[in-house]
Records
---
Amino acid sequence: MDLSTSLRTDMCGQLTAADDGRTVTVCGWVDRRREHGEHLAFIDLRDYTGVVQCVVDEKHDLRSEFVARMTGTVRRRPDDTANTNLATGEIEIDVADIEILAEAEPPPFPLDERTDVDETIRLRHRYVDMRKERMQRNLRLRATVNSAVRRGMEEQGFVEVETPMLIASTPEGARDFVVPSRKEPGSFYALPQSPQLFKQLCMIGGIDRYYQIARCLRDEDLRADRQFEFMQLDAEMTFVSQEDVFAVISHAVANAAEAVTGERPTEFPRITWQEAQERFGSDKPDTRFGMELVELTPIFTGTEARVFQASCVKGIKMDAGVEALSRNQIDALVETCQRWGAKGLAWMKVIDGDDGPALDAGVAKFLSADESSQVIAALDAAPGDMVFLVADERRLVRHVLGLLRLELGRPPVNEGGLNFLWVVDFPLFETIGDGGKPVPAHHPFTMPHEEDWGLLDEGGDALLDVRSQAYDLVLNGWELGSGSIRINRPDIQNRIFELLGIGQEERQAKFGFLLDAFRFGAPPHGGFAFGMDRLVALLAGESNIREVIAFPKTQSGSDPLTNAPTPVDAAHLDELGLRVLPPAT
Ligand code: ASP
């Protein structure tokens, strides 16, 4: 691509031996400077394509990060000074003219990739941080992913529709960010947690296939994979089953992965939520590695060993190939499992016994010979392996062993390839909350499986067995996103509202406009949304999404660059009809 402008003929990092003898002008930042004697200096000038060595033979004031324009002749370096680590290492520019375009204070931190700089300082000076190779690579990779995803949706007939930012609340279940209204003091807009209701309206409006890379805002505690504001590929389609949704989203995601890695992922396996919980102890299994949870409950029915007298016993095995754990490490693991809610963690080494592999150490002495050999067989354990068992109520066993599995076996973020997985048949309700009301696992417009509609009328614990037509896309143990087929039958929608205890008044106040729209011919529809930040982070091999966002907030939700959030002056508050209370003591 020709990137020449009125100020430059070439890009620093693109000059090669083929340019030998040409007169060129390059612009950029002073990356490094090496003085040789009184006047002679080697200046590395940098733009986003790389650096080029400029030989300056006159007095100059150039310092680190000054912005300069250099004109000169490209020449080959003498063979013994060529730098094979550098794309431009065979040549240099013999500079005839230097123009300083901007001076610069010394940078707040070194711009090499080796120095570990405190994140708050990086974010405070993000414009300097961005000049580094890692940020340049990540932000450009992000743009590549955005455009591949857009293309992927558009080539499947999706139409981009933009939806508003100042809206009434959406039902994703997180806390809203709100914006006070000046025209109606005391009233507030909510910022969208997602475009959920609008995309459903688009379906009723006959758009057929909607998509948008939408900004979503949720006031939740921040983590490595969560920011207040994030970008979602948001999609909705009419006259579909969940199979259709899987096909289009897999296509768009495969486009993104191919654009970055050059290889098109073809495998998007499926697993039910139930199976994911039983085998991986998680609804977002990291399938880059094995170490699956093995069912041991039948072995322990009628056991004498008190610790294993529980409604569920499961175990995992750590291979001998993995570095052995020290006693201190094991004690720390036991404590960690207790923090996760387990009463304890039973661990045993597998040794060479007189009659084949046997269990040694820890609680092994409480097991009968038969129980020991059955545990070894079930876990397919060999001498040198270690086994970990948890006995408790089933949900807890799965939860604790699921976390332990990650702790012991999870590869670094940039290893193990891209393992996509569709998790299907999520339960409609997570638990039965206080007062007997079920807690929805998704938003209240999620369609239950037709075979389970009868359970809705049974109520009570039967509700926990209702499967929904809701699904997640998981990549390497990260939840990329979720979606569902929506309810378009008023009788089912009303039943769900009843079960959730959302009365007529609340329905009308919160979603009245959507319910009204449903009366005017609502086609069956369903959709999906996935987090672009997470997808980009995984494709970039980053474990923190802040590394792929140009201007993120810190973990505590503040912005060291602009200082947001900041107080608002009294006059502005008056106009909005607001008063700020003194901080609670
Ligand atoms: N609106 C949902 C979310 O943001 C996704 C969907 O159901 O399409 O999680």
---
Amino acid sequence: MKKDLLTLNDLTKEDFDALFARALELKERHKRGIFDKVLAGKSVGLIFDKPSTRTRISFEAATIQLAGTPIFMAAAHTQISRNEPVKDTARVLSRYIDCLVLRTFSQELIEEYARECSIPVINALSDSYHPCQILSDLLTVVEAKGGYENVHVAWIGDGNNVAHSWINAAAILGFKLTLACPDGYTPDSGILEKALAKKTGEIRVVTDPVDAVKGADIVYTDVWASMGQESEADERLAPFRNYQVDAALLKHAKPDVSVMHCLPAHRGEEITEDVMEGPHSIIWDQAENKLHMHKAILEALILKK
Ligand code: CP
Ligand code: NVA
């Protein structure tokens, strides 16, 4: 049976560990200039209804480096733009390509593609989740901290798609996650309740960023207005003002705290320039790891590993 990656709940703890191990192996081989041709003869289709630099290019580069062929489909140049039904598009694409990487607004649309496709479907970000992001982020945590088990991650800012995938990950892997969000911008209560019901990790939502970062190993932030929320950007500035990750906030975390951001960042809003460029930032390693993790994901799903 084909396997999709629609949310992190599609994975077990063993799946996470296998992906981390393989991504680290692929990264080490990449550094030595060794590129395994594991996707030779395979094609990966990409449909992106929202902009992307990192996710799209790293999926395309990952496919090419594994000897596969990426096919980017600009929606405007396909019959999708003329409202061909999803099930027709999905069935036809499944006859041509070996995997579909999809970034769009609604999670339900990605799930519909997954139901109608006979090939694996990968969620490359929806309004609700960003599972691939958190897989490569956790790979970066494993490298920086030697593992994820005893790590305390503090999320500062909007209870958004990236936060939701962090919540899913904490519930599966059991690490400590504290989210500091302004009132009215907390994570989806259904996603949170399902995660808390698993009783694995220690997941807390607070309003005070200082409370959240106390003793944190990782301080993570993201934009205050996500793609699709641009019209709310101005009205969000006031409620989010105290949620900036700056040097003063980091003083409350562990001395060796690492700072992460999925990017793109708005310097001077959710994070200061000095923190982004400072010694605690592992943001660029984090961005790099999308390449290595996406290789491991593609290999696992396409070759059913
Ligand atoms: N972090 C991330 O998904 O970046 P892009 O929007 O550039 O893909
Ligand atoms: N929360 C952000 C993440 C971008 C990678 C957004 O959805 O725009």
